[in-house]
Structures are given as structure tokens and as C-alpha cells.
């Protein structure tokens, strides 16, 4: 689990903003979990005490698991970022963001609501080939996700075969369902382009997670269900399975 907060913008529990946030915390877990896309936004109250919020769960999560995860995000926000007006919480199974400023119209990940994490283990050989293959997978998935029949979910898992000792590289791309295909592609492309700048070049896995889109790759399967997209060797056709969606457990273990 990872959290982000913006300093010096606090509220008190008995304030109008605090009351509006409690209303959002009571309603949003159910609204997200009852949505067909496991995604919902909320706007509660009037300025300057309006609460803007966004929640999203992994598409392979049950409604109960989704509701529990969003509720846990609110609980963690109170523990880790007490009385802070602008907070983002990331689990592998869900994410939550809320603020006193309207961020819902944004179609990109803002720097203060985005986390960059990497696998602590490194590739020891064929580093350049490994990196090129990982980014090829993510870029291909970013291109494919916006063409899917069920693109309203905007979630895709994928893999590509590589040489031993890592038989596969696994990838994940995800956008908020309210983004257009072009907005989703733009958010993913930006996140993928940031990865070489954010991470050491030989890491076995890395991710950039924001409130609008997520990209991730690893040398192990980190998502539930079957792989939806398989990037083939050059000259072969891609294989996809349109029957699955979304993420896994906790972001920081």
C-alpha cells in the first residue's frame, strides 16, 4: 500500500469539510463496488468545503472485495494522512483519491497523486534486451487497450515470452473508465515514457500508479485470472482473451 498527501491543507474532524468527507466515505465504497466497471466518482458539498473523490477497483475483484478495499483506503487515509484534505491511496486491488480541489476533470496523472515503485531485484544479464522487451510489451498493451470491445473497463493484462531464467515478462495497463480512448492512450504513453527516467535500467519490475492510469511489469504473474494479451515473437499474431480484468494485492507489501 502506498499513500500520498499534500502538506499544509488540513481540516478538523468537526468541520464542514470533515462532515462532507464522512458522507463520501460512507457512500463511495458501495457506489464503486456496485458499478459494472468498479469505478465511481463523488462530489459532495459546496465550496470551499467541497469533497471531490474517485475510487476504482480491479476488475477481477468481487463486489464484496472491492467495497472492502475502498473502505480500507478511507481508513488508511485517516491513519496515515490524518486530517489532510488531499490524499491518494494505492493498493494493488483498488485506489482512492480525494481532495478539496476538483481533480476529476484531469485526464492525466498529477505528480502529487502518482507513485513510482520498482522491484528490488535486478536483471544480471541481457539487460538492454530485457528492458526493450518490457517496454515493447507495455507499449503494445497501451495501443491495444483502447481498441478492445470492452474498452469501457480499460483494463488489460499481458505477457511476452523471454529467455530463461525469466520465461515471461507480465504487464498491466489500466485507465479510469471515464477516459476516452485517446485520453487513456495519452496517459499510458506518458507513464511508460517516465519509467526509464524513474527507475534503474536493470530492475526486474516497475510500476507507475496514478489516479488516472497505471502501468506495471514484473517477471512474475501479479494479477488474477488468465492473461488477456500475449505479445508474440516478431511476425506472429497477438493473442488476446477479452474475458478478464484488473489488479491484485497490496502495492508495497
Secondary-structure map:
Elements: E1 2-5, H1 16-34, E2 39-44, E3 51-57, H2 63-80, E4 87-90, E5 94-99, E6 114-118, H3 127-145, E7 155-161, E8 168-175, H4 181-198, E9 206-210, E10 213-218, E11 229-231, E12 239-240
Parallel strand pairs: 7-11
Antiparallel strand pairs: 1-4, 2-3, 3-5, 4-5, 6-9, 7-8, 8-10, 9-10, 11-12
The residue fraction in helices comes out at 25-40%
> What's the CATH H-level homologous superfamily of the largest domain?
Gnk2 domain, C-X8-C-X2-C motif
At the fold tier of CATH, the topology name of the largest domain is Killer Toxin P4, Chain A
Gyration radius, to the nearest Å?
A: 18 Å
Strand line-up across the major sheet: 6-9-10-8-7-11-12
Number of helical runs? 4
What distance separates the N and C termini? 6 Å
Name of the CATH first level of the largest domain: Alpha Beta
Textual characterization of the structure:
The protein is 29% helix and 25% strand. It is α+β, with helices and mostly antiparallel strands. The chain has 2 domains: 2-105, Gnk2 domain, C-X8-C-X2-C motif (Killer Toxin P4, Chain A), CATH 3.30.430.20; 116-240, Gnk2 domain, C-X8-C-X2-C motif (Killer Toxin P4, Chain A, 2-Layer Sandwich), CATH 3.30.430. The longest helix is centred in the N-terminal third of the chain and has 19 residues, at 16-34.
Amino acid at each position: 500500500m502506498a499513500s500520498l498527501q499534500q502538506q499544509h491543507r488540513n481540516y478538523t474532524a468537526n468541520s464542514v469539510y470533515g462532515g462532507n468527507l464522512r458522507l463520501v466515505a460512507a457512500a463511495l465504497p458501495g457506489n464503486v463496488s456496485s458499478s459494472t466497471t468498479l469505478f465511481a466518482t463523488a462530489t459532495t458539498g459546496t465550496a470551499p468545503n467541497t469533497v471531490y473523490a474517485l475510487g476504482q477497483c480491479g476488475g477481477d475483484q468481487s463486489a464484496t472485495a472491492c467495497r472492502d478495499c475502498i473502505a480500507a483506503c478511507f481508513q488508511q487515509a485517516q491513519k496515515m494522512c490524518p486530517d489532510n484534505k488531499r490524499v491518494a491511496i494505492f493498493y494493488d486491488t483498488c485506489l482512492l483519491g480525494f481532495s478539496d480541489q476538483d481533480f476529476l476533470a484531469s485526464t492525466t496523472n498529477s505528480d502529487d497523486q502518482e507513485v513510482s515503485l520498482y522491484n528490488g531485484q535486478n536483471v544480471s544479464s541481457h539487460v538492454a534486451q530485457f528492458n526493450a522487451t518490457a517496454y515493447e510489451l507495455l507499449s503494445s498493451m497501451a495501443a491495444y487497450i483502447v481498441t478492445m470491445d470492452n474498452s469501457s473497463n480499460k483494463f488489460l493484462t499481458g505477457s511476452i515470452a523471454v529467455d530463461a531464467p525469466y520465461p515471461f515478462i507480465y504487464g498491466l495497463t489500466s485507465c479510469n473508465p471515464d477516459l476516452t480512448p485517446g485520453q487513456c492512450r495519452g496517459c499510458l504513453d506518458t507513464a511508460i515514457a517516465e519509467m526509464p527516467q524513474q527507475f534503474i535500467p536493470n530492475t526486474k519490475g516497475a510500476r507507475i500508479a496514478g489516479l488516472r492510469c497505471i502501468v506495471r511489469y514484473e517477471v512474475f504473474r501479479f494479477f488474477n485470472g488468465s492473461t488477456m494479451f500475449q505479445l508474440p515473437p516478431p511476425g506472429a499474431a497477438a493473442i488476446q482473451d477479452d474475458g478478464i480484468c484488473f489488479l491484485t494485492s497490496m502495492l508495497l507489501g
